[in-house]
Amino acid sequence: MDYLKTYTGSNAAFVAATILLSFLTIYVIYQRFFHPLSKYPGPFLASLTNGWNGYYIYKLTQHEQLLNAHIKYGPVVRIGPNALHFWNAEAISPIYKSGRQMAKTEFYDGFTAFKPNLFGGRDEDIHSLRRRQLSHGFSQASIWKMEPLIDGQMEILAEKLKKLAQKQEIFDFKHLISFYVFDILGDVAFGRSFNTQISEVAPEIPAISDHILLSSLLGTFPFRSFFRSIIPMLPIPRLRQLIESRGKLKETCADCVETRRRQSSSSRLDLMQHLLDAKDPETGAKLTDLEINSEAIAGSHSTSGSLSLLFWHLLHDDQALKRVDKEIRDTLGDLPDDRVSYPIKGLESSLSYTGACIQESFRISPVFTMCLWRRVLDPGGVDIDGYHIPQNTNVSISNFALHHNPKIWGPDTEDFSPERFLEAGGKTMANNLLPFSIGHRMCIGKHLAMTNIWKTLTALINKFEFHPVSAERRVEMESSGIGEMKGPFLCTVTMKR
After folding, report:
1. Which of 95, 154, 174, 276 is placed for a possible disulfide with 489 were both Cys, Cβ 3.0 to 4.6 Å?
2. Residue burial 190-215, b: 16+ Cβ < 10 Å; e: rest
3. CB contact at 8 A, 232 and 242
4. Share in percent of the chain as helix, strand, coil (round to 5)
5. Residues in a beta bridge with 492
6. C-beta separation of 120 from 109 below 8 A
């Protein structure tokens, strides 16, 4: 009898294993030879599972892997069972300028911490409503009125640099910029500074990075709610840390919004006041606290990453740095002792070479590297860069791969060369930069980010001389979707006058 039970159990296990193996074999054969995307080349594993993407997102190297895949396989690469990634600029418009015919995919659901925000929301009607509610607060005119808040944080940064110059201490420029930009975020977006420049302690900064990594991972796999619920039970401390970081970040945002609402004062011209006052010009609908929390948590540290990388490239290119310094002095004059920065109005239009350096830093080291997925909705499919893509295919372009395509930029894609934007054809090249995305989903925070970058760069270059400790001219990035310089950026600093 025991023998019979053992035999029966073994037989059942064998049958189950055979069925499973048969299913997997059929699945692999279908995906590799009969799937509508089977004709497109790409990594073998990527044609079977989104695990290929998930692994490299977790390793913070997806941007590099995508570029390597295009170098190996060509302009269109299959990087998921139902996903194609494009490399050429000709693919930009049909993917990102086709409106509702190219819908956001479930990838964006992973970014919902409170309620869907401008970035993560997939409902086009809600997106249009939210955009109307927020457009005034994020307009260039509104950001100009917030300059005193930015200058207040700039003054603290300048004083720290003066003390570092006197002591000739080695410091991490990346951390200094991160604290500075985070305090600007607090002043402008939350109505209060986090005072991290003073304390030099900011647990929220790594929490923001963890939130983005968790969002990108959740967005990559199906059954998001299920995975979100089981992550705390998995024996992987790093994944549990991501969940905890998101929770702490939500608490911080909610506390800031609640405190600001209690102290609401229309006399303070900051982004939080705009969010509190925001309403749809057509219906008068205002934002709820959860909706305000959702917008406040979005787009947090891309500016500090961009600034750190911009300074890296300039400080490791003597000719470019001298030219930027001379252009600032010749055009704007030296900052007087009673001013901490230049007014933002007119900076971009008057400093052409400096602008080219900013563009080139966006090109060679774009901090926003994640794939912005869209789904083909047209039943007849759509033509993208000469390829006919069937309905329900997910398609994307990511900045890092696009910005390193030699077909667009020439063979020197690894060289920091601002002159490429000043030569014939430079304007066309600039149109292929996507630091803030493009189309009706373009980042609404562009004006605030660019104001920070322009004011910080021009003020610091005019008043200080930075000396990087490392002579290494290549800089590595790590990115969960929004990236930053890998490792520290050690410098010393001296006063120019």
Report:
1. 174
2. bbbbbebbeeeebebbebbbbbbbbb
3. no
4. 55, 10, 35
5. 467
6. yes
- Encoded tokens for 241: 């840390």
Q: Is the CB of residue 278 less than 8 Å from the CB of residue 134?
A: yes
Judged against a pLDDT cut of 60, whether residue 136 lies above it is answered with: yes
Helix 147-167 with 446-463: angle, nearest 10 deg: 30
Indicate the fold that domain 35-495 takes in CATH: Cytochrome p450 (1.10.630)
Percent with pLDDT over 70 in the chain: 91
- Record the tokens describing residue 285, joined without a space: 């609908």
CA angle 304, 214, 475 (to 5 degrees): 40
- Spatial contact of 276 and 261, defined as CB atoms under 8 Å apart: yes
CB 306, CB 367: distance < 8 Å: yes
Nearest partner of 423 among 353, 323, 362, 358, judged by Cα? 353
- Distances in Å between the Cα of 303 and the Cα atoms of 2, 26, 177, 282 are 69, 47, 9, 32
Residue 497 has pLDDT above 70, yes or no: no
Contact 486, 477 (CB under 8 A): yes
**What is the rounded average pLDDT for all residues in the chain?**
86
- Lowest-confidence region among 248-252, 362-366, 372-376, 446-450: 248-252
On the question of pLDDT at 282 being above 90, the answer is no
